[in-house]
Specification:
The protein is an alpha/beta fold. An eight-stranded parallel beta sheet has the order 7-6-5-4-3-2-1-8. Strand 3, helix 4 and strand 4 form a beta-alpha-beta unit.
Length: 216
C-alpha cells in the first residue's frame, strides 16, 4: 500500500492543533480508540516533530501519521525523519512543494480556486487539500470535479459528522477534520472520553457514506 493509498483507506484525517505534546499524545490515543487512525499533527502544536516520533513509537503502523501546517523544507524533512508518511501545507508554493516531494512522503497542497488546484496538481501534489472548504461546501468540491476529474480532492475546514456523506458524494477522496472532531475544550479539560466518542461518530459516518457510495 502506498502512502496515498493509506490516506484513502484512513478516510478521516484528524487535524490536531494541541496546546502541548502531552495533550497531543493523549488526544491521539482517544482518536485511535474511537476508530480514527488518520492523524495529522500540525506544526502549530508545540514540539510537533517529537510528538510525531513518539506517536510512531506508540502506535507503529496502526495509524496513518502525517504533519500539517508544513511551511518550511526543514519541517518537511524533520517530520518524515520522525515517522510522518504524509505532509500537508495550507497553501501551494513551488519551492516548498519540491522540498516536500523530495522527502518521498505523500504530499497534500492547499488550494481553493481552480487556478490554485491547477498549480498544486502541476507541482505534483498527490492530493489537493480544499481549504478552507467551508467557504464553498460540498457543492463547490463537486463543481471542481468537472474540470478536474482526475485530481484527488480532500476538504478540510467545514467537515463534520453530519455532512461527511455530502462530501463523499461530492467526490472527496478523504476528509480532514479539526475542531469539530478534536475540540479544544475537550483537550483542555482532559475529556478523552468525549474525543473518543466523537471519533467513533465520525468514523461510523464516513464508513456509512463510503458504503452508500459504493452501492450507489
Amino acid at each position: 500500500m502506498t502512502h496515498l493509498d493509506a490516506i484513502r483507506a484512513a478516510g478521516v484525517l484528524a487535524v490536531l492543533r494541541a496546546p502541548s505534546p502531552e495533550t497531543a499524545i493523549s488526544a491521539v490515543g482517544a482518536l485511535v480508540a474511537g476508530g480514527v487512525t488518520g492523524i495529522e499533527i500540525t506544526y502549530s502544536t508545540p514540539g510537533a516533530t517529537e510528538v510525531i516520533r513518539e506517536l510512531r513509537s506508540i502506535h507503529g503502523d496502526a495509524i496513518t501519521l502525517g504533519a500539517g501546517t508544513v511551511l518550511t523544507a526543514a519541517q518537511a524533512d524533520d517530520a518524515v525523519e520522525a515517522g510522518a508518511t504524509f505532509l500537508v501545507s495550507p497553501g501551494t508554493e513551488a519551492s516548498l512543494a519540491s522540498a516536500m516531494l523530495g522527502t518521498g512522503a505523500a504530499v497534500l497542497l492547499g488550494a481553493m480556486t481552480p487556478s490554485e488546484v491547477m498549480e498544486a496538481s502541476r507541482l505534483g501534489a498527490h492530493v489537493v487539500k480544499l481549504f478552507p472548504a467551508s467557504l464553498g461546501g460540498p457543492s463547490f468540491l463537486k463543481a471542481l470535479r468537472g474540470p478536474f476529474p482526475e485530481v484527488p480532492l480532500m476538504p478540510t475546514g467545514g467537515v463534520n459528522a453530519s455532512n461527511i456523506g455530502e462530501w463523499v458524494k461530492a467526490g472527496a477522496v478523504a476528509v480532514g477534520a479539526g475542531g469539530d472532531l478534536v475540540s479544544g475544550a475537550a483537550m483542555a479539560a482532559g475529556r478523552w472520553d468525549v474525543i473518543e466518542d466523537t471519533a467513533r461518530v465520525f468514523a461510523d459516518a464516513y464508513a456509512q457514506a463510503t458504503y452508500s457510495e459504493a452501492g450507489a
